[in-house]
Design goal:
Number of helices of chain B: 0
Largest sheet of chain B: 7 strands, mixed
Distance between the termini of chain B: 37 Å
Helix content of chain B: under 10%
Oligomer: heterodimer
Number of helices of chain A: 0
Order of helices and strands of chain B: EEEEEEEEEEE
Structural class of chain A: mainly beta
Strand content of chain A: over 45%
Largest sheet of chain A: 6 strands, mixed
Order of helices and strands of chain A: EEEEEEEEEEEE
Largest interface: A-B, 26 and 25 residues
Number of strands of chain B: 11
């Protein structure tokens, strides 16, 4: 079974500082990887996804992630964060069975950007 | 294009009651998935429907059920509610071909 580990449950940073949110996955097959963001009292919004091709993936709001197959990691980065980036971030792997797409999520990382 | 809509947004029920939640996917999307989000367990997959057929099911008891209609709208039902069913229930739709799921705002269910 696939699983996702987000290594930090909370990450506090100052505004305009760089940030990295770490994600490791376990899977015996090829995977599709995703990062979602959740603002308070809202659903999930896709930040970026890795399906194949270039291991560096760029997403919305200035975020990017790098797929590392040997380390089974998919860390999310942003060079300079804003107050508005304060939210919870979820890493997910797609478990495809018989054409059905089930997302397996990590426990989430709460990013707090302080002024 | 309108996003995924879920109704109601908030719901308070008593233990032992049943509840039905509704999800309208993005126009053209035929796959609808449901997830339960709790502080303790995080985001867990409930089930996925495609063209009115359940294609996948998570590890939840039979009290949790769902269905999908011909217009792709989906409902999930929880019978004999327990306190532990209090959660945010999220619905997501996809084209089923691009592996991108679009989430609705969720229904916050509180069981007292």
């Amino acid at each position: 079974a696939q699983s996702v580990t987000q290594l930090d449950s909370q990450v506090p940073v100052f505004e305009e500082a760089p940030v990295e949110l770490r994600c490791n996955y376990s899977s015996s097959v090829s995977v599709y990887l995703f990062w979602y963001v959740q603002y308070p009292n809202q659903g999930l919004q896709l930040l970026l996804k890795y399906l194949s091709g270039s291991t560096l993936v760029k997403g919305i709001n200035g975020f990017e992630a790098e797929f590392n197959k040997s380390q089974t990691s998919f860390h999310l980065r942003k060079p300079s964060v804003h107050i508005s980036d304060t939210a919870e971030y979820f890493c997910a792997v797609s478990d495809i069975q018989g054409g059905s797409e089930k997302l397996v999520f990590g426990k989430g990382t709460k990013l707090t950007v302080n002024p | 294009k309108a996003g995924v809509t879920q109704t109601p947004r908030y719901l308070i029920k008593t233990r032992g009651q049943q509840v039905t939640l509704s999800c309208s996917p993005i126009s053209g999307h035929r796959s609808v998935s449901w997830y339960q989000q709790t502080p303790g367990q995080g985001l867990q997959f409930l089930f996925e429907y495609f063209s009115e057929t359940q294609r996948n099911k998570g590890n939840f008891p039979g009290r949790f059920s769902g269905r999908q209609f011909s217009n792709s709208r989906s409902e999930m039902n929880v019978s004999t509610l327990e306190l532990g069913d209090s959660a945010l229930y999220l619905c997501a739709s996809s084209l089923a071909a691009d592996y991108e799921q679009y989430f609705g705002p969720g229904t916050r269910l509180t069981v007292t």
